[in-house]
């Protein structure tokens, strides 16, 4: 990659983050020992509660695929150590120490999706249909949560590898049903709404990926966002406007499953199974799909090569040593055949 | 800590972040090997460019304390791998791939503050006067940057330990002069301005720390913020309203130096020298101090015990397993005498 290119500051239209692209940063030395947190595949198979046959060691099951069989492929279960509790009342109170600072009771749902019965299989090992099945399980659970009036937003996410925050190595993702619309979502919707009011168009529909394109499927395309916060960050975007992830039908789920699998395989092959996160960015529940011409759901994949530092924590700006055009070119060319 | 306390969702008045407090999360098991990135004190002394006598291996010097002596205590130097460049023009252009997305040239300043000539000394090993001297060096450099019309905000921060992002182990911090006001600052100022317009008072002046108080000095106090994103996060706040860090005078610098040293020693003793970041949250340059009755600078310290995951990246909400009242009580009681 051209290390002489001058740095640039780009601002992101969706999340309104500022990102500094600087190739000089890629050449920094370090006098710390490598801290790569290796993913001990299989190491704890014998005691893993997510493995088939150990269902009794898990918190209660919500749904399984296929239904009513001991030979399941996917299970959605309650998180045994939930951040939010489904069994308490939703209410608010004032905090004494800070005038007007609000406190809500921690009502909400926190589920785990076990993506495979087998300990050593990871998401990208599944077929396109297999990954599509996981996406459909997400949708089924979102539709259940939709019927709860107190839930306003659902955050679907995956942590893979210890440096991406995972505490369990068996392939899984998580679904949290929140009684509030979280800050990132509020900001994103506000940005997209302002843009819509100005242009009459959805800002995400208007993206022309050009040299930022990685791959395409029938209903989706993948690209490096023009102001990627992290090197080799990938967005998978539905071609046609859709505000809510749970609008995904079975055909599109398999199509998306294939593209998601391809992106994960490319990252894994190119960077030797790096830790990563993925996040589904959807729209809040209270909004009817037809009312959200400005909000377009997408899936974000972030490989984790190094942690952030005080600059990012303090300013909310990111420093990315890899220009998006160069990341996209590299990812386009990875051959996983 | 009471593990039966129900979870709570608190929202922060300053940054407008939502934080879920859940003691259940503290009990999660992990099947990954420990990933603690040990800080190899002294291990690379012999090749450290920040050590006294190796000044020629560093990028150019900006200032040293005391001035014009080879027996220096503090040096401010250019970063050899700068994210922003001081030698390019500041200008903007449009990006083809995304209509209206802006790109600025990466003009700006990126400096390193070497806090001690000695490799094995860390910031909290210095005396209160010594730490105060580092704060005064920050101020001197900020005052220099103030004279550059293109600089709008200065982010001062420190990374300590590899898991807090540090690539160099010799005690140092960084100063970045930015040609834009970064997103976190814009949000913070907007929140504080709205509050000021409603109440006629500065929201930070109005904080009554109560059971969240940790320690106090003549001009500052330290507390755990009521919606701390991270366990044992600490804010050090000037008692009297002040919008800009660079208003700090020499007497207050020593006073702050003593309290900062005390907080870092408490963290180090209680948690065995954990990685941490600190960030100075000040006000943009263009605003005259007298025009900012709503913006109150402070210093934030964040010890890094574990990384964040997809939930935080996706939603901007944090999950904190330690309630602020309990963190403050523990930190109040750490005996560093
Ligand atoms: N027997 C069992 N039955 C049911 N559930 C079980 C279980 N044993 C463990 N679990 C749950 O399984 C989940 C596994 O999740 P991950 O490995 O993706 O990350 P975790 O949530 O631990 O934290 C990461 O993700 C969160 C959210 O992003 C961050 O807050 C955090 O810092 C980061 O480490 C845990 O939440 C755990 O509580
Ligand atoms: N001989 C020399 N002369 C002058 N300067 C020298 C030098 N040798 C090294 N440097 C500079 O010294 C600095 C040391 O900084 P830190 O150890 O605090 O973290 P770093 O900036 O590497 O990255 C961390 O902080 C940044 C900002 O938060 C994050 O983007 C990043 O992910 C995280 O790892 C580096 O910026 C490096 O460029």
From TrEMBL, chains A, B:
Its cofactor is Zn(2+). One of its GO terms (biological process) is galactose metabolic process. Keywords: Carbohydrate metabolism, Metal-binding, Nucleotidyltransferase, Transferase, Zinc. InterPro entries: ADP-glucose_phosphorylase (IPR053177), GalP_UDPtransf1 (IPR001937), GalP_Utransf_N (IPR005849), HIT-like_sf (IPR036265). Residues 10-182 form the Galactose-1-phosphate uridyl transferase N-terminal domain. The keyword Nucleotide-binding does not apply. Binds 1 zinc ion per subunit. The active site is at 172 (tele-ump-histidine intermediate). Zn(2+) binds at residues 48, 51, 119, 170. It holds the Pfam family GalP_UDP_transf. One of its GO terms (molecular function) is UDP-glucose:hexose-1-phosphate uridylyltransferase activity. This is Galactose-1-phosphate uridyl transferase N-terminal domain-containing protein.
């Amino acid at each position: 990659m051209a290390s002489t290119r001058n740095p640039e500051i780009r601002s992101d239209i969706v999340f309104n983050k500022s990102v500094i692209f600087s190739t000089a940063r890629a050449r920094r030395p370090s006098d710390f020992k490598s801290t790569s947190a290796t993913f001990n595949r299989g190491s704890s198979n014998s005691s893993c509660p997510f493995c088939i046959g150990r269902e009794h060691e898990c918190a209660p099951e919500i749904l399984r695929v296929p239904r009513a069989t001991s030979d399941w492929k996917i299970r959605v279960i309650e998180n045994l150590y939930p951040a939010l509790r489904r069994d308490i009342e939703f209410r608010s109170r004032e905090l004494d120490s800070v005038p007007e600072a609000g406190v809500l009771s921690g009502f909400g749902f926190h589920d785990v999706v076990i993506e495979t019965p087998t300990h050593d299989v990871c998401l990208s090992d599944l077929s396109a249909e297999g990954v599509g099945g996981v996406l459909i399980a997400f949708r089924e659970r979102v539709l259940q949560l939709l019927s709860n009036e107190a839930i306003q937003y659902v955050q679907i996410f995956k942590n893979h590898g210890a440096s991406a925050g995972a505490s369990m190595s068996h392939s899984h993702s998580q679904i949290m049903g929140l009684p509030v619309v979280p800050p990132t979502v509020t900001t994103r919707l506000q940005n997209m709404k302002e843009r819509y009011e100005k242009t009459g168009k959805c800002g995400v529909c208007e993206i022309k990926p050009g040299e930022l394109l990685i791959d395409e499927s029938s209903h989706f395309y993948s690209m490096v966002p023009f102001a990627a916060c992290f090197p080799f960050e990938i967005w998978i975007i539905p071609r046609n406007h859709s505000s809510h992830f749970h609008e995904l039908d079975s055909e599109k789920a398999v199509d998306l499953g294939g593209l998601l699998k391809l992106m994960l395989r490319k990252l894994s092959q190119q960077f030797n199974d790096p830790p990563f996160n993925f996040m589904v960015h959807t729209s809040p529940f209270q909004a009817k799909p037809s009312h959200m011409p400005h909000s377009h759901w997408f899936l974000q994949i972030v490989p984790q090569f190094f942690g952030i530092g005080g600059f990012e924590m303090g300013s909310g700006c990111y420093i990315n040593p890899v220009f998006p055009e160069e990341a996209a070119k590299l990812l386009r060319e990875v051959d996983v055949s």
